[in-house]
Amino acid sequence: MATKTQEGAEAGTTAGTEVRSDDETRENTGTAGERGAAEPEGAESAAVAAGGAEAEDSSEAEGAELAEEAEGAEDGDAGGKAPSGVGQGAGAVVSAALGFVSLSGGWIGTIAGAREQLVGQLRTSSTASVATQIKAVYGNAWHSTALWAGLFALAALLTGVVVLARPAFGAPGRPQAPWIKSVTWAGVSLGVIGLLLAVLKYSDALLALPSTG
Question: pTM for the whole thing?
Answer without folding.
Answer: 0.58
